[in-house]
Design brief:
The chain is α+β, with helices and mostly antiparallel strands and 456 residues long. The protein is built from 14 helices and 19 strands. Strand 5 and strand 6 form a beta hairpin. The structure holds flavin-adenine dinucleotide.
Amino acid sequence: MSTMTVEQLREQVRGTVITAEDGGYDQARRVHNAMIDCRPRAVVRCANAGDVISTVNFARENGIDIAVRGGAHSVPGFGVCNDGVVADLSAMRSVRVDPYARTARVEGGATWSDFNAATYPFGLASTGGIISTTGVGGLTLGGGIGYLARGLGLSCDNLISADVVTADGQLLIASETQNEDLFWALRGGGGNFGAVTSFEFQLSPVKDIYGGPIFFELERAGDVLRFFREFIVDAPEQLGGFPAFQIAPPLPFIPADRHGEPFVALVACWAGPIEDGEKAVQPFRDVAPIVAEMVGPMPYPALNSAFDALVPPGLQHYWKANFNTELTDEAIDAHLIHGPKVPAVNSTVHIYPINGACHRVPADATAFAYRDATFATVIAGMWPDPADNDANVQWVRDYYAATAPHSEEGGYINFMAADDQNRIVANYKGNYDRLVDIKKKYDPDNLFHMNQNIKP
Ligand SMILES: Cc1cc2nc3c(=O)[nH]c(=O)nc-3n(C[C@H](O)[C@H](O)[C@H](O)COP(=O)(O)OP(=O)(O)OC[C@H]3O[C@@H](n4cnc5c(N)ncnc54)[C@H](O)[C@@H]3O)c2cc1C
């Protein structure tokens, strides 16, 4: 049997195949992180699961790399590759809500914006990320941390089933009752096990929330971080949010003469009864004198997209990540040295709480192993001008070097850089060996290796 050519692939799929000879190639090979500049042999803009199967078969038969792309937000640029093929799922983004069962069926290329827009009218939501343009696919498969995680668990904890195209070109359904080992691995194991064409999620009643950002003077950063580490341990689980180091963007709610200055912020999201919101968020307001705030009742999708403008496509990205079971005084001291040096308005450091419902899932119940971590920190370097790469990368590295000795060995894979592959075993702790066994079963030749790779 001869191997499939690009022309045969083009004939076979319903979607579009884009090569260097086609118009739109440069747009099609682009991912969110502008540092990534790869030239795939073809980008297949898949229209359905059949197209995904054809693309996987094409890669396997030709012995070339395959990158599976959902929202294209991977900082290491796992959504594209050199000389291989990209299964671009961005045209597969429908969301069907079943309000009676409180579930949503979400195609593999949907973003959280697609998800929230579809579920909000029903007064339903699930844990998604902080930014609405991030893909449901990559975020959920790596775990999924966001405003609602303390109350509803990680995104992957709300997954009921997934349709997965595996390396042999078969479509498998993974759930608690079918291909259970695959289902276990998908919940935290990243894109290692196949291309997910459709996710089924549990939804929960969340419509309007009470929340938003509150900015404090930098000299109160120690008070803010110490307050948050104590408060969040027993805070009601409907309260999400996080401390951040952030340069003030030029927004009307911030005094104009303070635009461009670094601050420490608390972002709040109360997802309980809206009339209780003001009281629930008051402890955040009481920490220190407030410089600026934009807190109030709003639709959950509004908060979920409130910071999108800070992270448009085309920025340079370099990120590092830590888990903390405890935020020690030494860890806070390290934050106080490096947080105030945040070098660009797009860059930020967020310390996400992942206790509450996330802690109630046993560490071996899903691939996501850090169920005892209280915080997941991201040091997110994002800046527009490549001429500033060295300085910005250095800020992230110095920050990470200072906090790592006071953090767990592993870090959240979705916040890690391409040079963090040596931390993957630590990230999965006691779950790693089982992940390797499942990888051997479903992808023995490591076809799906454009990810934080679990080697078979
Ligand atoms: C601006 C920004 C904000 C972020 N905020 C958060 C946040 O609040 N919480 C959080 O947890 N993470 C967050 N992240 C990290 C995010 O979870 C990861 O970058 C994630 O990989 C993005 O998924 P994606 O589908 O957009 O990316 P892609 O680049 O398309 O894919 C990333 C990885 O996931 C795999 N993948 C994606 N879709 C599928 C699929 N359908 N089937 C199989 N594999 C797939 C890819 O193969 C690749 O390995 C953020 C990232 C950015 C850039």
